[in-house]
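Notes from the 1:1 (GR / supervisor)

We went over the backlog. Supervisor wanted to see one worked example end to end before approving the batch request, so GR pasted a single chain during the call. The sequence is below; no edits were made to it. Supervisor asked that the structure be written out right there so they could see what the output format looks like.
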Amino acid sequence: MESKLLRLRRIVPPEGKTVIVPIDHGIEGYFPQLEDFRNLVSALIAGGADALLVRRGLLKRVADLVAGRAGVVYRVSGATVTSPDVQDQRLVGTVFEAVRAGADAVVFTVTIGHPKEADMLTAFGEVVDEASYYGLPVIGEAEPWSKAKEEERAELLRQGARILSEEGADIVKTFFPKDESYYPKIVRYSLAPVVAAGGPRLNSQLDVLRFVKAVMDAGAIGTCMGRNVWGWDNPELMVKAVAAIVKKGASIEEASRILGGSR
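Structure output shown during the call:
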């Protein structure tokens, strides 16, 4: 379908590599970096982000900055930090409103291994069906249940990538386990291209670059990291450094030089 291809190309350029930056964290807790959101969005775009992942409220307030400069991934799932379970993802937006807002894709999270995984998967399937009607790409996000044992998480993520791609995701956004030997196993088992989620901020910018290099070497087509991009002093430079690895195959050392003395 031409409409899906046109939208996908605004998220993943023709060369097939992408840097997506989520800034949809506002309902999940307090992040001081999100207070001055317009300057943050400008910095991310200046750094070369291909697309921004946002919720409807933020999109309304930054559309003028984003238009013609970056793709828009519209979040339709959510759970708040004030709710009993932030991993119990619910449908909080609609594909119809995403289309009306001019989004290039929608994203929905399924917490793999969660007691309510089946409910989330049902909602995800409904999103895929509606999005297919409009020619709107779907990003399925696989997140492991936080109460799963550490040794179980790698397999949950591999299975999660396959589940969401089997159920119609055009792109799978997934977390990665501590065991780097599992990275290519997760990517290979997905039917759809994979982008790497970042999760909580890592200890250093160098750790972030090492992670990006590892997931790209494992076969991912890019990253979809928020806190590990805008959680540092200079988000613009961090996007440039990540993009150097993702798009140009830069080494960790080459990418780190872009950061200079930024922390």
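Supervisor's comment: The beta strands are 18-22, 51-54, 71-75, 77-78, 90-91, 105-112, 138-144, 171-174, 194-197, 222-224.
Batch request approved.
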